[in-house]
Amino acid sequence: MIGVSEKPLRQPVIIHPVSVQATLPLRHSVLRPHASLDECLFPEDKSPDASVDARHWAAVLPAAPETVIGCLSAYRQTCPVALPVGKTRTHWRLRGMAVLPPFQGKGIGKRLLEKALADVSNSSPDTLVWCNARESALGFYRQAGFSIHGARFEIPAIGPHFLMWSAG
């Protein structure tokens, strides 16, 4: 469960860039089991600029490198609301963060998030990162330094969310 004490995984985990296709089975099973695999593609994944403006990471175990146990995607996308950050920044949106249930609470999501934040910050030093966080993930993002902006809102068929952001 997100936001509870983590028990580190006793085996190494590799976090590496992948194609969006590598994230789809996990997005489907963990985040959108009611949807088809094709419906697990976000509009940003279908953009002609996706190769430049989208990044995807997977967590795998060395013993089974073909099995994605965690994933996260980031898209260069302007936050839809004005945030109190003071100066113009490059905006990145996080989406599709998922970890297989047996591996949740073991630091894999944290490592995926750290990798994503480091990669997008390296590409543009004045970076603002934002996401629509599920209500159940608020503690996870707060621990990572994200702040809530605005009120709770509902995403149909998925559930309650909050816009969260971090300017590093």
Assign the CATH superfamily. Gcn5-related N-acetyltransferase (GNAT)
What's the CATH architecture name?
Answer: 3-Layer(aba) Sandwich
Distance N to C terminus:
25 Å
What is the SS-derived class? Answer: alpha+beta
| Radius of gyration of CA atoms, rounded to a whole number | 15 Å
Low-confidence stretches: 1-5
Mean pLDDT: 88
**Which strands sit side by side, in order, in the main sheet?**
1-2-3-4-5-7-6
Q: Please report the total strand number as a whole number.
A: 7
Oligomer type: single chain
Helix-strand string: EHHEEEHEHEE
Strand content: 35-45%
Largest sheet: 7 strands, mixed
Count helical runs.
4
CATH topology: Aminopeptidase
Shape: globular
The CATH class: Alpha Beta
Helix content: 10-25%
Tally the structural domains. Answer: 1
Structure overview:
The protein is α+β, with helices and mostly antiparallel strands and 168 residues long. Helix content is 23%, strand content 36%. Strands 1-2-3-4-5-7-6 form a seven-stranded mixed beta sheet, sandwiched between helices. α3 (108-123) links the parallel β4 (90-99) and β5. It is globular and about 45 Å long. The model is unreliable at 1-5 (pLDDT under 50).
